[in-house]
Amino acid sequence: MKNKPRSVIVTGASSGIGKEIARVFVRNKIHVVACSRKWTKLKSVISHRDENYMYYHPYKIDVGNLTGTKKAFSEISKKFTVYGLVNNAGITAFKTAVDHTEKEIENILKVNLFGAIHLTKFTLPGMLKRNEGIILNILSVAAKNVFTNSSVYSASKAGLLAYMNVVREEVKESNIKIINILPGATATPIWPDKALNNFAGRMMTAEDVAEFVFTVFNMNSTVVPEEIVIRPVHGDL
Ligand SMILES: NC(=O)c1ccc[n+]([C@@H]2O[C@H](COP(=O)([O-])OP(=O)(O)OC[C@H]3O[C@@H](n4cnc5c(N)ncnc54)[C@H](OP(=O)(O)O)[C@@H]3O)[C@@H](O)[C@H]2O)c1
Questions:
Q1: Long-range contacts made by residues 154-161, C-beta under 8 angstroms, separation at least 24?
Q2: Which atom of ligand 1 is least distant from the CA of 19?
């Protein structure tokens, strides 16, 4: 297909930070291929009555499922020129290393680490061919700092940080920017209700994080912000 719209894939776009990232990109007339598992939530991120609805393209994808993700990416790349990828989808379970079930361990690594690695692998060949691209990763301060009850989550984020730092070196000559953002606590449904009830007022809002992400993503300059830590004004919880 000729003249395919230039688009950015945003994973985990049905909720929290990813939803707000999709909204701010669409508001700025950037085509967003918005991915997550829950179709009804994903569909409602942008109202079909919104003047910028034409920029919103929801796709039901479970990034933890390699076969499905590969098939979906192949369909997406036939319709869109993917010049940006925001690896945002993420899950956790606030438990000690001992209490984590084997299934939880597998799921967290599948979604947070393997999902982002696979989508990056699928997206890069097109970017390399066109000699342009931006891959922005929503990691976490837990990639570097110690938070108990977050061992597997921290491993997934630290693993992706290490992976992306290597990928940057491999693709930088092709004008592909790899940007790692490490946010601190943000008020989203990833937190248990009790934590939100007690601490939401001390957390960043998903809207503020998304605005920041958009500013960084949209920098049309010779600068690449390789790694940025953002925290609530009052610091970690
Ligand atoms: N909130 C914080 O304090 C905080 C701090 C640092 C970093 N982060 C990171 O920010 C990112 C977004 O988290 P959030 O706080 O916005 O949480 P959230 O509100 O729970 O959103 C998580 C998103 O990930 C999607 N998702 C989960 N499993 C998926 C899968 N298998 N395939 C595709 N999409 C999947 C969810 O959509 P579906 O359920 O529809 O699939 C949802 O859209 C995560 O990577 C998280 O680690 C969050």
A1: 155/109, 155/113, 156/90, 156/108, 156/109, 156/112, 156/113, 157/112, 157/182, 159/109, 159/113, 160/87, 160/112, 160/113, 160/116, 160/117, 161/137, 161/227
A2: 43
Q: Which of 15, 32, 161, 237 to mutate to test the pocket of ligand 1 (most atoms within 8 A of CB)?
A: 15
**Does residue 12 have its Cβ closer than 6 Å to ligand 1?**
yes
Pairwise CA distance, residues 203 & 233, whole Å: 8
Question: In the prediction, which pLDDT does 232 show?
Answer: 98
**What is the pLDDT averaged over residues 198-221?**
97
Domain that holds residue 121: 6-230
Number of domains in the chain: 1
Q: Is residue 1 part of a domain?
A: no
211 is a domain residue: yes
Q: Partners of 138 in the beta sheet?
A: 181
Q: Return the percentage of the chain with pLDDT > 90, whole number.
A: 97
- Please indicate, yes or no, if residue 237 is contained in any of the structural domains: no
185: Cβ below 6 Å to ligand 1? yes
Q: Tell me the HSE value of 188 on the side-chain side, using a 13 A CA sphere.
A: 25
Alpha-carbon dihedral angle through residues 144, 148, 154, 155, given to the nearest 10 degrees = 110
Q: What is the pLDDT of residues 3-20, one digit of tens each?
A: 899 999 999 999 999 999
Neighbours of 2 (CB within 10 A): 3
Residue with the smallest CA separation from ligand 1 atom 1 is: 186
Average pLDDT in the chain: 97
